Amino acid sequence: MALRIEDYGLIGDLQTAALVGRDGSVDWLCLPRFDAPACFAALLGDERAGFWRVAPAAGGLCTRRRYRGDSLVLETEWDTPEGSVRVIDAMPPRGEAADVVRVVEGLSGRVPMRMALRLRFDYGHVVPWVRNRDGELVAVAGPDAAWLNTPVPLRGEDMTTYADFTVAAGQRVPFVLTYRRSHERKPKAVDAERALADTEAFWTSWLRGFRYEGRWEDAVRRSLVVLKALTYKPTGGIVAAVTTSLPEQLGGPRNWDYRFCWLRDATFTLQALLGTGFVAEAKAWREWLLRAAAGDPADLQIMYGIDGTRRLPEYTVDWLAGYEGSAPVRVGNAASGQFQLDVWGEVLDGLHLTRLAGIESEDEAWDLQRALLDFLEGHWDDPDNGLWEVRGDRRHFVHSKVMAWAGMDRAVRAVERFGLEGPVDRWRATRDKIHAEVCDRGYDSGRNTFTQFYGSKGLDAALLLIPRAGFLPWDDPRVRGTVEAVQRELCSDGFLLRYRTGADGGVDGLPGAEGAFVTCTFWLADALYGIGRRREAYELFERLLELRNDLGLLSEEYDPVARRQLGNTPQAFSHVGLVNAARHLSGTDPAEHAGGGR
Ligand SMILES: OC[C@H]1O[C@H](O[C@H]2O[C@H](CO)[C@@H](O)[C@H](O)[C@H]2O)[C@H](O)[C@@H](O)[C@@H]1O
């Protein structure tokens, strides 16, 4: 059975990533890129679906682990009766091919070790043909090929490759797994020690661009490393998480594939990166967006593949039992075909932010924005699926309308402040019309709160973003009333749900419930700070930091009853929430608190 979600650490090479458990087992790895089929999928089934363990022969969870400095070089250590041992894991920056490097280092005594490798391509479905060629293992099946290099003798048993060896203090034993398409020639083997050094140097050098002076610097640095690790280097696209189908409710069907680029998540990530000095990543994101969104603005999707692919058909992988029995396991995401109005506003806001940051404007970028605005003008009053991607009826979600307002607002500012061309009077009129409608139909004066959708009884954590979007200032009584109502009605042990799944007759059209949503709780900390309840904001932020695992990683959700992480991991949305809230609570982002306007 897979470990708890918080028991997994992340290593990655900016094209894909692996999850390494506290038991030394790599239980998730998609090759050659984030959205490719997994060759280790034990995470979503059991060991039959593929894994790679390097650990003391006696097994068991490690005693401690950490990343080396600011890098994604993971060190996992066990204290055993025979001595202590460390396994160092990394995926070096991609050269000719993808490599996973694992070095066993004896720390004291003599520790008996065991390596077990079970490659199963296509999400555990395909057993490769494995041969031992002069001590090097070669595994081939269809389009996939992998090589394992190590000085330790290997043996095969039960369709699995094993190595039993003992490591003495000061001794280092390398294992390098290399992947390439089977029709390509065998890549040059990397030197394990050199690869570890290169990986560490890469991350250390990347963080030299980091700009943030505030409390919680270590947490912010680690979250930025995670966001960078979720970025697909060849295109600049940012995946929402490295996994599919880690459940939002244990045992339930709310299991989704997050290995794609959501415009919403990427825009929030852009805010976090720009606000901490990473301008090159922001530029790469903008270029990715211009390519992905090119074409008819009516065809803008809410998400794309990492290279801008549009069709992301959703299907279930029925041979996998799912994480702790949470079925189905889904590949692809049907939300890609939804209409989520907020995305237009988020993209326009993101591009406005790049202008404010002085990233030079391209005509192409403004042409795209003009096209998006044309669409928005014609569709802002249509019902939509909302940012939570409900699979029930489309509604007039208040957050969606607020973001439509934000899109028009950024257009007006582009003309007023940056002298760009456009029908500013018309845009101003549409902006004001949306504002008036939301305040009229989306606000419940009896309860002094905005509501989830026009006329709904339910609330929505996304309403906390109203002042952040600049729609109303923090000191507006309707904002304060909404923050208080959301906190009162959506908290579970102090952590925030996105919405009550049972409200208004089941708004999302799905069975079951879910955990508290991590990024929404960061929004609550931010909102409490914004309305002047600063002590509470700090306390909540500190509680949220406690939800991170020992390596500083956050998944999408948290179960306040079982006290464990839920949902896909590590999730960009959650880490972005951390970075942006830290910036606001440290007072390092004054624009955000000047009434939300930019
Ligand atoms: O829970 C229902 C929905 O969950 C996923 O969407 C969520 O994750 C997205 C990526 O982080 C985020 O942009 C969105 O706001 C979240 O609701 C899933 O992708 C959807 O298919 C699913 O309906």
TrEMBL record:
Signal peptide: none
Domain of life the protein comes from: Bacteria
Pfam families, alphabetized: Glyco_hydro_15, TREH_N
Domain Trehalase-like N-terminal: 2-193
Residue ranges annotated for the GH15-like domain, each copy included: 217-582
TM segment ranges: none
Name listed for the protein in its UniProt record: Glucoamylase
